[in-house]
Amino acid sequence: MKQISFRILGPLEVAVGGQAIPLGGPKPRMLLAALLLQPGVVVSTDLLVDVLWPEAAPRSAAANIRTYVHSLRRRLAECDADLAERIQSRASGYILTASPDELDHVRFDNLATAAQQALERKEPENALAHLDRADALWRGDVLEGLAHDHTWDPVVARLDALRLAVQERRLKVRIQLGRCAEAIVELRGLVAEHPLREELWQQLIIALHAIGRKAEALEAYHQAERVLRQELNAPPGPRLREMRAKLMAAVTAKPVAARPVQRAPVCQLPLDLPDFTGRDDVVDKMVGLLRARRESGTPSVTVLSGAPGVGKSTIAVRVAHTVRDEFPDGQLHINLAGTSSTPRAPMGVLEELLHALGVTDAGMPREERERSALLRSRLASARMCVILDDAGSAAQVRPLLPGAGACSVLVTSRVRMPDLAVATAVDVDLLPEEEAGKLLAGIIGEHRVAVEPDSAADILRHCGYLPLAIRVVGAKLTHRSGWTLRMLASRLRDERRRLDELRVGDLAVRASVTLSYDLLPPDAARAFRGLGALGPVTFPGWVVAALLGREEADEILDTLVDAHLVALVGSDGTGQPRYRMHDLLRCYAVDMASEEETRPAVRRVLRAYLGMAVEAAQRMPIHFFGIFRTDDHDPGPLPLDADYLLTDPTAWLEGERHTGVAAIALAAEHGFDDLAWRLAIAFTPYFDLRGHQDDWRHTHTVALAAARRAGSVTGQAIVLRNLGQLDLYLDAYTHSLASFDESLRLFELAGDELGAAIAQAGVGTVMRIRGDESALDLSQAALARFVAVGDKHGEAVVRISIGMIWMKKGCYATAGRWFDDALELSAEIGDRHREAHALKRVALLHQHRGNLAAARELMQRAIAIFDELDDDHCVGYANQSLGELCLHSGDLAHAQLLLVNSLSVHRRNGDRRSEAEVSELLGELHQALSQPERARRYAERALEIWRELSARPQESALAVRLQEAAESTYGVVATA
């Protein structure tokens, strides 16, 4: 087995065979860190959830943790199969096993102990060797770059304290061995980093004095004295004061303290924009925070992060100007160039800051740590506001921060900085529509916006409410007074040229985005380009993995989110986060992508969606009477946590509804016709259950054209059958019959008996509703086909349909046998949905026979099942039947409640036939309640619908009843 090393004394790292291996994004790395801090101990899942999601854990937290563990184990196994067993699951959590030599922090502890034992044995050279090896294990701060959980504090604090103790002991031994020059170099760095640690100052003074640099030793004492008084308001300890007395005796010339130079307060703030608009909530929040910290005497650090062009720097400058009088010692402004190709190093920035604070070149420390310590000392007694603009990382900012005092630092960055623990994070979002409108009006003049308000709204929408884009169009319109807003809106409408239009002078959205894009790692840049090709949709996290052809890509998504190139916009019904790209970022991504790259990436995403949609349809609690997958179904790999995502398949389909509809159009647009029609039929069970008939129509129009282009007879047959069903729901019987007939022909041509049975059942249903005598023969023929292919679900459906034909003929005994057979068969195969339908029909049979009590009981049982299956559509129809029963049994209050609810469902679903039936029943109800006007309005609405549907028998019967009611109520003859 290859040698492995787990390293936390610095950035988290795992090396196998001497080579570091990739660990994934922040979440897997934090999980591994939590396990490494307690090696050999089971870390509970609850604790890991708190570590990974300190504010609010998603519903999928446990599943996500399993995914992260799987990812870590896979990465270890790629190096050596046996290494995967280092991380194991237990009943209550997870455990990491490793030997002491494989853990750098345990090796460090052991080396420190060995050094102490060597010193006790009077073996300084041996002790120094152990101490050198221990110090060499450190590559930075403990778990540098990771956001620390509060539960880690004791371990991290212990390691930090032990590190400092080892460094002190190591330097003390060096000085004892006469290696003072080497020790002085390191001691200067350590006192700059830990200026309040008197032991370090003592060692530095001893080392300088030992090699004859007595003046420098005395200066070191004075420096220690200044730091301790400024930061602790305390004099040096007795040991340091004793050393000073010895030094004073040895130095003949007492140094004369330089007189302080009075300096005017420095103010480097850029101009506060006169047309600054909105952002009151952000500005007020930040001003309040700065004032509160200033009054408490503690420094404040605020990081404003957001997408390119969102206005972070403008807000920081506005806040600094607002509180300028409260920071009388000055305001500093430094551009860190974090998004440039050459971000500024802290060393150079510190020099600029110290120069601004009056430090001369002669007094400028040579080391970064010394400069940082001097900056902290200067800021500790000052009241200053510092803007660090365009920061690239927390590491770039950290050396520039105050350690004490009442200074405030405003950091702007395009990336989030969770590893800057001392900072308050403020996300800067897009402008609200109203504030965006005020900004545009403030630039071009309110009169131009008032003249063309609709075009102004279009411009703002095309700009995506991004302040930089609004300023660009505002500048264009200001310098082109002859342009109308309508003309510019028209030019912005074309996404392919939109970014070209959003440029004026040195203001350009494209250039701004490029700065962020150029900083992305290659895989993140590829994902960014691929996401642009998906269109203006929200998407779940697993889509990024599908785009890249990976099992998981959480770290890539985290990179894009932290860079504000992808936005977290909420969660869906399954608790999964949803993401979206800003429209202008999407346009940029499309511009940067090539067809050769995006086409296969889009296909992978569409295949994954197909696999998920088919699996969700398969798991839905209601058996769909139709075909949503074919035998040659070939989806792509499912996401790693597909089982969890589909725990509630209907909720998953609800969450993906709009993205799924867009995916069907996207598939057709890219020429993936086979995927287009397959995706459409996979979503149909959900459209049917929830009554999303507009989506159903739109997707199947696209799907039918795609199936025809692909030359798929089966695809055309399925899509036409579904369209026939949709038209049946909408009472468009002519169109429905045409679709069912053509579907039947195509199924027979393809030799698909199951499909033919479903289509033929649809033809029979249309004929039954129309009162055509052929309905019985057609339904029995469909039944024979279902029996032949062994589809008992379809058999139950058609048995109910045949029973309804006999019931309509008045042959109640025969109808009852067919309903009973369907009920028995549904129970046998566990089809609760079909069982409820059979119960409903048996209830109607009892109603026709006059047994209202039994009818009502059975109808309530049916409604309970529909309710249990979350089928609002069928609950609406069952409420109609139960409402009719209550009406005829005299329970008018209950009848009214049921019928009004049912009418609402029918109107939402576009079922006009049922709407007419319920309107008639409500007319009867209000007639019984002696409310003739309301009764007449409902009846007239029903009559109007019957006429539109060309339902002559219903129209004639209702017209007669209306006339009779009018004669009895008003004594006049009504005209209908």
Characterize the structure shown.
The chain is an alpha/beta fold and 976 residues long. The protein contains 45 helices and 17 strands. A six-stranded parallel β-sheet has the order 7-9-10-11-8-12, sandwiched between helices. A three-stranded antiparallel β-sheet has the order 1-2-3, with no helix packed on it. Strands 4-6-5 form a three-stranded antiparallel β-sheet. Helix 35 packs antiparallel against helix 36. The longest helix has 25 residues, at 595-619. The protein is elongated and about 125 Å long.
What keywords describe this structure?
alpha/beta; six-stranded parallel β-sheet; elongated; disordered C terminus
Beta fraction:
5-15%
Query: Overall pLDDT, averaged?
Result: 87
Distance between the termini: 92 Å
Number of H- or I-type helical stretches: 45
Structural class: alpha/beta
- List how many beta strands DSSP finds: 17
**Residues in helices, as a percent range:** 55-70%
